[in-house]
């Protein structure tokens, strides 16, 4: 009996040692929750837990490295902190990994402490279960509420309809009774007077032809004005927002993620036209972002599957194989629907407004709209694009709209270019345009000349 207890105790001690050793080897001595934060901040650009991105999938990497290569966590510490140094030392496996993944250099992380790396490895070994989305409870509550309200709403609607029908029947009955009373009270003199009343349109026109002609003239003028007003608004599409072949939310990219407009529309600053970005620009980010993870923001009526499907459209357009992490060479052109399109007879240069007129336009807009200020010059014409899920034409873009802007936008005569270019014209312009204490607007320097915009 004693020997059995002794054997049992030794077995428990061995199991405990084995478990503690395994936990130490496979990354359980770190904090997975903190590791998740560090992983998302430092690793998600190139790695995912469950699939290869730029680098390999990292779930269970500690155990996999130990089983396949006989390497421990100390090797991972060296690799993460400075993989270049590890490769330069002649480490065989470090150079094999470098060759296997197309010689793509991994970023070095000297800022991560040993504890930080242990936390990250603990996360890759045993990632914590995702917290249930709060929006689900809200949706369930809303659905339950709507289910309770539905019968009440239906009953109320029925009561209203019945009441209206009853009121309508009562009104018809009253009208019939009034008609009977009128017939009973009509005298013989009144009947004779009715026979002498005018009963044809011709008689009315002959009697009141001057008034009739005047009314016809007024109606003709109103009709002409209506036709003219309709013609003037041909080609004005304020509020136009067509559906695009690939859904792209500026609110997510420019608003939530704070991506600068000119990162994608690079030619807007130094070119005449702000071009539609190439799909390769999208792939700068979406090569490593293959699924939508910003579940805190989703447009009503859309779910994660919808956004993931749109990312797959980008891959199909560029010929990107996300599994093999390489281009197939089979591309599909995207037929975007153009929203802003100036007529062929109008010249507009983005660079002139984005570079030369940037601060002047921003200052003028904020002065005229103190409760709706902008921080980027693009918003003066295109509206607050960072709040739009679907881009729409925010302004009229008519000739009158442009002229009004030129008449009210003050030119910065103190910047280097204007100060030198208009050196001999400053005094003359101030005398010629004395309004607002000698402030000079765009129209004073040729902003209303026909040849500036038409050729």
Automatic annotation (TrEMBL):
Bias type Polar residues, positions: 140-151
Signal sequence interval, chain numbering: 1-25
Keywords: Heme, Iron, Membrane, Metal-binding, Signal, Transmembrane, Transmembrane helix
Segments for region (Disordered): 127-151
CDD domains assigned: Cytochrom_C3
InterPro entries given in the database record: Cyt_c-like_dom, Cyt_c-like_dom_sf, Multihaem_cyt_sf
Pfam families listed in its UniProt record: Cytochrom_C
Transmembrane segments: 159-176, 215-236
Domain Cytochrome c: from-to ranges: 30-128
Gene3D superfamilies for the chain: Cytochrome c-like domain (1.10.760.10), Cytochrome C3 (3.90.10.10)
Name of the protein: C-type cytochrome
Organism: Chryseobacterium nepalense
